[in-house]
Write a structure and sequence with these properties.
Elements (H helix, E strand, L loop, with lengths): L1 H26 L6 E15 L2 E15 L7 H4 L14 H29 L1 E4 L5 E4 L4 H5 L6 E5 L2 E2 L3 H10 L4 E8 L2 E8 L1 E2 L6 E2 L2 E3 L5 E4 L4 H5 L6 E5 L2 E2 L3 H10 L5 E7 L2 E7 L2 E2 L6 E2 L2 E3 L3 E6 L5 H19 L2 H4 L9 H14 L1 H19 L7 H14 L5 H27 L2 H9 L2 E5 L5
Parallel strand pairs: 20-21
Antiparallel strand pairs: 1-2, 3-20, 4-11, 5-6, 5-7, 7-8, 9-10, 12-19, 13-14, 13-15, 15-16, 17-18
Helix pairs in contact: 1-3, 1-10, 1-11, 3-8, 3-11, 3-12, 7-14, 8-11, 10-11
């Protein structure tokens, strides 16, 4: 059922994008030869009103074949010249047709946002309170303490650690102004970021109050033999500071069959134990035999964020991500941090399995991304068509067909290469995706916050 819903959600986003092109083209009197979802060889096709409707094997978007637009015959196939040649269309009409696809994604995002507003939206409960300040660190010497609250990153207000992590990663600075509130008021600190060991993405040398907490210890397990107790907070595993449950699950599996030191916070003291992760209950993954006391906790905000606020928030995040990708040396964000179809499928599946409202929020993000990325001035994308049309409008003559075709082929090859690259990266994160489904999540229904 989840797989069908994922296909429906993702397919609807692509279909509406292409339908926008199709609808405007028909309204402007353009000839439409084919409406395709995907690229490459056809899976199936049918004909209606003189138009071929096709599904193709490469799920990287789609196209509407319009003989009166300068597009790529190498990608979409040669056009069927029937009867007399078709009349040329104006650059304005070309621009309108190209804008229609992203516009439909934005409309869809607002429509989904309206549903989210009416049904309520689960907000992650992870307030921006500082949980760990390393002893002897520069942050401790500045006077930052556990229990202080981060209120702004680079001048932008934040309320949760999710927002903090996103802002820090995308700001193109290594030293970031951070506003921190303590019992002495709000003070701005210039904090130097550090690179996360596995991804290299920037983060603060401060940690949230979301340490893995032992809720239950399985009998005759490594955890029980090591003396772990309920309410123990796991703060270090194999010499690595633990920041989340997903990180702990991953590290446990990597230490299968190897004695490993683990440090827990128990009351007012820290206790060091040694245990050996092992395969339990005939599973493939290694375990230490604990269940977390709480998983990710979400509190439902009713009504949810307004459609405008929700769409604007993800728009801002998308633009910041593009900006961060253009300055990898300053941000540490690179194409290897992107997700392709596998990552999108995994995240959407997780949200659908958790709460359909979270999936709707992800659908808003997906459609805003489709709209913005398609408007980039890159041949093959809608922004490329718009750019060529603007050049034609200014010069009063269309661009040379061979030049357009060559630019399309080069950019298509680069985009497909990027998609394959991020897909391979996603496949390497399968264990991380699995850990999302293994975590315990609690949804708390609540009224509107005052």
């Amino acid at each position: 059922m989840v797989i069908l819903l994922v296909m429906l959600f993702f397919g609807a986003s692509i279909f509406l994008h292409e339908y926008g092109h199709y609808w405007v083209a028909r309204k402007l009197g353009l000839k439409v030869e084919e409406f395709a979802i995907g690229f490459g060889p056809k899976i199936c096709s049918w004909k209606k009103d003189g138009i071929d409707w096709t599904l193709r094997w490469i799920p990287a978007g789609g196209f509407v074949k319009l003989p009166q637009l300068q597009t790529s015959e190498a990608l979409e196939g040669e056009y069927n010249e029937e009867n007399e040649p078709l009349p040329a269309i104006s650059p304005r009409d070309k621009i309108l047709v190209s804008l229609a696809g992203p516009f439909m994604n934005v409309v869809f995002a607002f429509a989904v946002g309206a549903v989210v507003y009416l049904t309520g939206y689960p907000q992650r409960v992870n307030p921006s309170v500082i949980g760990i300040v390393e002893k002897g660190s520069a942050e401790e010497q500045m006077g930052i303490k556990e229990g202080d609250r981060i209120v702004a990153i680079d001048g932008r207000e934040v309320e949760t650690w999710e927002e903090i992590l996103t802002r820090v990663a995308l700001v193109p600075k290594r030293i970031i102004p951070v506003d921190i509130e303590s019992n002495q008021g709000v003070k701005t600190y210039q904090l130097e970021t550090v690179g996360e060991e596995e991804t290299g993405i920037k983060q603060l040398n401060l940690y949230m109050q979301d340490l893995p907490v032992v809720g239950r210890v399985q009998p005759d397990s490594p955890a029980e033999r090591a003396g772990l107790q309920p309410k123990d907070k796991i703060i270090e595993f194999n010499g690595e500071k633990i920041e989340s449950r997903g990180q702990l699950i991953k590290n446990v599996n990597e230490r299968k069959g190897q004695p490993t030191q683990l440090i827990v916070s128990r009351g007012d003291e820290q206790v060091e134990v040694t245990l050996t992760p092992e395969v339990l209950n005939d599973e493939d993954r290694a375990r230490i035999g604990i269940a977390f006391s709480t998983g990710g906790t979400y509190r439902v905000m009713k009504p949810g964020p307004t459609p405008w606020a929700h769409v604007w928030k993800v728009t801002e995040q998308t633009l910041m991500t593009i900006g961060a990708l253009s300055q990898p040396k300053k941000t540490g964000v690179s194409p290897s941090d992107l997700s392709g179809p596998v990552g999108i499928f995994a995240n959407l599946s997780y949200y659908l399995a958790t709460d359909f409202r979270l999936a709707l929020g992800f659908l808003i993000l997906l459609n805003v991304n489709l709209a913005i990325l398609n408007l980039l001035p890159i041949p093959v994308l809608d922004g490329g068509h718009i750019t060529f049309s603007l050049i034609e409008w200014v010069t009063r003559k269309p661009m040379k067909g061979k030049l357009v075709e060559a630019s399309y082929m080069v950019c298509f090859f680069l985009l497909i290469s990027l998609m394959l690259y991020v897909t391979v990266r996603d496949l390497g994160r399968i264990s991380l995706f699995k850990s999302m489904f293994e975590s315990e999540v609690r949804i708390e229904e609540a009224g509107s916050p005052e």
